[in-house]
Amino acid sequence: MSTTITVEGMSCGHWEQTVEEALQEISGVTDATVDRERGQASVEGEADVTALVEAIEDAGYTAHA
Questions:
Q1: Could you say which of 2, 29, 43, 49 is the most buried, measured as most Cβ atoms within 10 Å of its Cβ?
Q2: Where is the HMA domain positioned along the sequence (predicted)?
Protein backbone atom coordinates (compact mmCIF):
# COMPACT_ATOMS: atom_id res chain seq x y z
CA MET A 1 0.00 0.00 0.00
CA SER A 2 1.26 3.47 -0.84
CA THR A 3 0.38 6.54 1.23
CA THR A 4 1.14 10.17 0.46
CA ILE A 5 1.29 12.66 3.31
CA THR A 6 1.61 16.43 3.01
CA VAL A 7 4.47 17.80 5.11
CA GLU A 8 4.86 21.50 5.85
CA GLY A 9 7.91 23.35 7.15
CA MET A 10 10.88 21.54 5.58
CA SER A 11 13.49 23.98 4.30
CA CYS A 12 16.54 21.84 3.49
CA GLY A 13 17.68 18.32 2.64
CA HIS A 14 18.59 17.60 6.25
CA TRP A 15 14.91 17.88 7.17
CA GLU A 16 13.99 15.41 4.42
CA GLN A 17 16.33 12.89 6.01
CA THR A 18 14.94 13.57 9.49
CA VAL A 19 11.38 12.90 8.34
CA GLU A 20 12.38 9.80 6.36
CA GLU A 21 14.14 8.35 9.40
CA ALA A 22 11.13 9.07 11.63
CA LEU A 23 8.80 7.33 9.16
CA GLN A 24 11.08 4.32 8.70
CA GLU A 25 10.93 3.65 12.44
CA ILE A 26 7.17 3.05 12.27
CA SER A 27 6.07 -0.57 12.29
CA GLY A 28 4.81 -1.66 8.87
CA VAL A 29 6.80 0.88 6.83
CA THR A 30 8.87 -0.80 4.12
CA ASP A 31 10.09 2.41 2.43
CA ALA A 32 9.73 6.16 2.92
CA THR A 33 10.76 8.93 0.55
CA VAL A 34 10.40 12.64 1.30
CA ASP A 35 10.42 15.48 -1.25
CA ARG A 36 10.70 18.87 0.45
CA GLU A 37 10.12 20.80 -2.79
CA ARG A 38 6.75 19.08 -3.23
CA GLY A 39 6.12 19.03 0.51
CA GLN A 40 5.24 15.34 0.44
CA ALA A 41 6.22 12.08 2.01
CA SER A 42 5.53 8.85 0.12
CA VAL A 43 5.33 5.79 2.32
CA GLU A 44 5.17 2.14 1.28
CA GLY A 45 3.87 -0.58 3.56
CA GLU A 46 1.01 -1.35 5.88
CA ALA A 47 1.56 1.32 8.56
CA ASP A 48 -1.34 3.16 10.17
CA VAL A 49 -1.76 6.65 8.65
CA THR A 50 -2.31 8.18 12.08
CA ALA A 51 1.03 6.78 13.26
CA LEU A 52 2.75 8.23 10.19
CA VAL A 53 1.32 11.70 10.76
CA GLU A 54 2.23 11.54 14.46
CA ALA A 55 5.82 10.55 13.63
CA ILE A 56 6.20 13.53 11.31
CA GLU A 57 4.68 15.88 13.88
CA ASP A 58 6.93 14.45 16.61
CA ALA A 59 9.88 15.31 14.31
CA GLY A 60 8.71 18.94 14.38
CA TYR A 61 6.61 19.37 11.24
CA THR A 62 2.97 19.82 10.36
CA ALA A 63 1.53 16.85 8.47
CA HIS A 64 -1.80 15.63 7.12
CA ALA A 65 -2.88 12.77 4.93
A1: 43
A2: 1-64
